[in-house]
Amino acid sequence: MLQVLLLSLHASLYPSVASLRSCPGGHTAAMRQENAEYEQRRKAAGDDTGKLWDLYLWCKQKKIDKEGRSTLRQILKLEPDHKEANEALGNVSYDGKWFPSQKKIDEYKKEQEQKQAKEKGLVKYKNDWVPAADLPFLEKGLVKNEKGEWVDAEAEKKIQEGWVKQDMEWIAPTDKSHLEKSEWKCGDDWLTLEKANQYHSDPEHWWRIPGEHFALYTTCDREVAIEKVKKNLELAWVDLARIYGQEPRSPVIVVILRDQDQYGKYAAGDQDASVPPTESHGLSSVHYAFFADVGFDATTSEFLGAGVSYWDASTDVGNIFGVHSVRHALGQSFAEALDPSPKALEKLRKSQRPDMKGFWAEKRIPAWFRWGAATYAERYFIDTLVKTGGNSHWARDWSVTNIVSRGGLRPLKEIFQCDITNEGGDDSQKLINEEGLVMAFVVDGNCAPVKDKYKALQGAMKEGKDAKAIASLASALQAEVEKHEADLRKFAGI
């Protein structure tokens, strides 16, 4: 009886931890007691991971999770690969390392994949890593055949079946006899070249002549297109590649019409016939070439992204100026291919409403550089076909004379502003010429400080830098040209 009484008295004087937790204020007292004991055990364990693990198990038994996790982290500081501590914290093992989650493992895998791919010279294409040299071919939809040659998969199949191509159209084996008779497929009919030229003289049925660098869409007679237009476009391509320091990855489209009347109608459209215009700024009336910023293929409804001009082979003047106009048109196509407006075009596809402000705001290449490059190709090119002793700079000399006769070179700041408008009329036409002169000085002037700034800008465009970076480098180039205006004038001879 006395023993029971003493036990009861002891219990009343020294309550258990459980009883402390269940009574008012007991929870705090119990935690203090456990914290004190934890600190004692932690101090006793020191840096011994075995003892620390035992401490963690004690924490787990006492259900004091915060202290338990702290103990686990201390273990991993001392022994990062401690298996039990990592697992207790929920870490996951992969590739000899411990990660806090599967998401971190996936990120690690991605980093390692990129690192290994770069070490092997691979680049990402869709969901695969491919050799960098293969990328331009894959982007064109090509595949390798059994011989390791890059070919169009569909084209290769047709070739094996005996099909052949006439320009951009596949001709079935059963129709090869028409090719042997030098006939051309025009719609559903086969016509002689003379009649084919008549058929293709309408922009709705223009010739579509493929090439390595560009596809020529033209209403000119085929002989003119091949022997005159295409020849000058190829020469202009070399100039443009030199100016930009790069080439478009895929052939560009350039539209060359047969005379000025057709050119004007193609630019303005025909409201009565429900034919839309192909430009938004009316610049076709300022110059003899323009960029069709709202020009679409009548057959596929795809955006052409094409420069447009004309070659009137019926007159001597038409043949003379055709050389220059088609070069400028290609310059506009070339620039668009390097600096497209994908967001604006995607918006157009969805809404069917062109956003021209958004289209032009998306451009990275400065307007003066775009116009300057096209005008250089048009009238500031170095003529490599001139015979020994001839003047290979005749086009530049002629163009500078034109500037001088129309009041001389305007302030360079105004040229860089590139305010070319339909309302500007003849003055805007002169400004286009002046843009070409500035580009000629930048490219051919041999002014070392200007050349350095030009190369920096050229490199940024080639690397695909953003608009802000390119604008900064363009401003630096502009400032350098302005500082060397005297050298520019000496270069031009004015």
Structural account:
By secondary structure, the chain is α+β, with helices and mostly antiparallel strands. Helix content is 56%, strand content 11%. It has 23 helices and 15 strands. The strands form 6 sheets. A 5-stranded mixed β-sheet has the order 11-12-13-15-14. It has a two-stranded antiparallel sheet with strand order 1-2. The chain has a two-stranded antiparallel ribbon with strand order 3-4.
What's the average pLDDT? 90
Number of helices: 23
- Biggest sheet: strand arrangement: 11-12-13-15-14
Please report the total strand number as a whole number.
15
Over the alpha carbons, how many angstroms does the gyration radius reach? 37 Å
> Which spans of ≥5 residues are poorly predicted at pLDDT below 50?
1-24
The largest sheet, given as strand count, sense and whether it forms a barrel, is:
5 strands, mixed
Q: Report the structural category.
A: alpha+beta
Q: What would you call the shape?
A: elongated
What is the CA–CA distance across the termini?
128 Å
Helical content class: 55-70%
- Strand % is 5-15%
